[in-house]
């Protein structure tokens, strides 16, 4: 039986009715909410909504160290993260679901390490490939078996938020080689690497990046896109658990 830690993002703050819900603390403070335990196709699933059960925690205020620590302590063998993102590559229209293979970290001031000489002994983890190849492959295969189109690969620029970007910032992201922009993959992915948890992500394109559309980005449209896309995300995850 595999134990997968699923971190839900915007549009996926709830998974369903849990078997049990464990309120937990960590040496780094409380995680975003109780760790919820679900049965999924003969496996156990630990679900944690990144922004809290009421979606009240902004990207820069998420206690990423506590979230990863809590999933690790409760026995997760891997982390699958769901992230709402903007499309920087204009070919990635709202509703597209991407399995990125690279990222660039533009965040600042977040508690971002267990290995910084204070939280734990100083270490420099290898991070050339920030997403785990094996779990990326499993997600792509799950997409195929669920009949849900997934884009294989992409570079996710992670910005500080909570505001959206300027048009110039999105143009710079594109020049840097980013195809997507989000606010929450870092330091989450690096912390997972520090504790040795394979980490992969389904990035759900909620909107075109700032300046790429004639219309300003509308939060209402974002919510609509995410509502529809999360049904497909659930189908991919169901196929992933079925195949484990
Ligand atoms: N930028 C950053 N994060 C996001 C966006 C965006 O345009 N859309 C959804 N999350």
- The ordered H/E elements are EEEEHEEEHEEHEHEH
Q: How many strand units? A: 11
How many H/I helices? 5
Distance N terminus to C terminus?
8 Å
The CATH superfamily name is Nucleoside phosphorylase domain
Write down the CATH topology: Rossmann fold
In round numbers, the mean pLDDT is 96
Which ions and ligands are bound to the chains? hypoxanthine
Q: What share of residues are in beta strands?
A: 15-25%
How many independent structural domains? 1
Our Rg estimate from Cα atoms comes to 17 Å
Name the CATH architecture: 3-Layer(aba) Sandwich
The helicity comes to 25-40%
Fold and architecture overview:
This protein has 244 residues and is α/β, with parallel strands linked by helices. It has one domain: Nucleoside phosphorylase domain (Rossmann fold, 3-Layer(aba) Sandwich). The chain contains five helices and eleven strands. Strands 1, 2, 3, 4, 5, 6, 7, 8, 9, 10 and 11 form an eleven-stranded mixed sheet that branches. Strand 9, helix 3 and strand 10 form a beta-alpha-beta unit. The longest helix is centred in the last third of the chain and has 25 residues. The structure holds hypoxanthine. Hypoxanthine binds next to strand 5, strand 10 and strand 11.
